[in-house]
From TrEMBL:
Name of the featured protein: 33 kDa inner dynein arm light chain, axonemal
Disordered: annotated span: 1-60
A GO cellular component annotation in the UniProt record: cytoplasm
Matching Pfam families: Ax_dynein_light
Family according to the record: Belongs to the inner dynein arm light chain family.
Composition-biased stretches (Pro residues): 35-48
Keyword flag Coiled coil: yes
Length: 257
């Protein structure tokens, strides 16, 4: 027989329920156990029946067992066509059991190399099993207190599930934003390349216009120098002509006197 994974929750010895796995039922209480325990490598036989209790005590014990089975359902597994069921133990816990539970928790945390801080699925699983065992111990002594702890456990699990969903949605949101940023980055780089190309074209046009402006200014300066030289020559010519006319006029007037 290959038992399921070991848990910090205390279970009774496995019991052979049926040799046909098709007849498996969800409740171990409703199943009829085999009258004879398995031989060879089979599990340890079921513990002997308890001493006879009064009807009130028997009813209370039955209610406690039902509450325990509802809080921590029996484990079932099949092997070689045989169905095995292992119910949670209804034996009251002693102080030594609590001390052993703490030591076993520390040992498994160290054995499975659970992280001391941060998010660690292994540590969370072991502490969850430890909490279930504490709920089992409390439920045996006081069913109402156990049910209240069950509400606390379910609330914690629901809160953790909500945080996990929120974390996953935030990661997905971050991934979408990152992809949008990458896409926007590509578009922005493309736009930058276009603007740089336009800038180079405008700079080339500016340089061409500057060259044309310099050529125009140079031609205008040359033309201005030519016109100034021509104007100066005309003035000199007019001055010489005026001087010659004055000389001739003076020569004509002088003999008459």
């Amino acid at each position: 027989m290959i038992p399921p994974n070991a848990s910090l929750v205390k279970y009774d010895n496995p019991v052979l329920v049926s040799r046909n796995t098709d007849k498996k039922t969800p409740r171990a209480k409703s199943l009829k156990t085999s009258p004879t325990p398995p031989t060879g490598t089979g599990p340890v036989p079921a513990p002997p029946s308890k001493q006879k209790l009064s009807p009130v005590d028997a009813k209370a014990a039955q209610q406690t067992d039902e509450i325990l089975n509802s809080i921590l359902p029996p484990r079932e597994w099949a092997e070689n066509g045989q169905l095995w069921v292992q119910q949670v133990s209804s034996t009251p816990a002693t102080r030594l059991d609590v001390v052993n539970l703490q030591e076993e928790l520390d040992r498994r945390l160290q054995q499975r190399q659970a992280r001391e801080t941060g998010i660690c699925p292994v540590r969370r699983e072991l502490y969850s099993q430890c909490f279930d065992e504490l709920i089992r111990q409390v439920t045996i002594n006081c069913a109402e207190r156990g049910l209240l702890l069950l509400r606390v456990r379910d609330e914690i699990r629901m809160t953790i599930a909500a945080y996990q969903t929120l974390y996953e949605s935030s990661v997905a949101f971050g991934m979408r934003k990152a992809l949008q940023a990458e896409q926007g980055k590509a578009d922005m780089e493309k736009k930058i390349d276009t603007l740089e190309s336009e800038k180079r074209d405008l700079e080339r046009q500016v340089n061409e216009l500057k060259a044309k402006c310099e050529q125009i200014e140079k031609r205008a300066a040359e033309q201005r120098q030519v016109e100034e030289k021509k104007h100066t020559e005309e003035i000199q010519f007019l001055k010489r002509t005026n001087q010659q006319l004055k000389t001739q006029l003076e020569g004509i007037i002088a003999p008459k006197k």
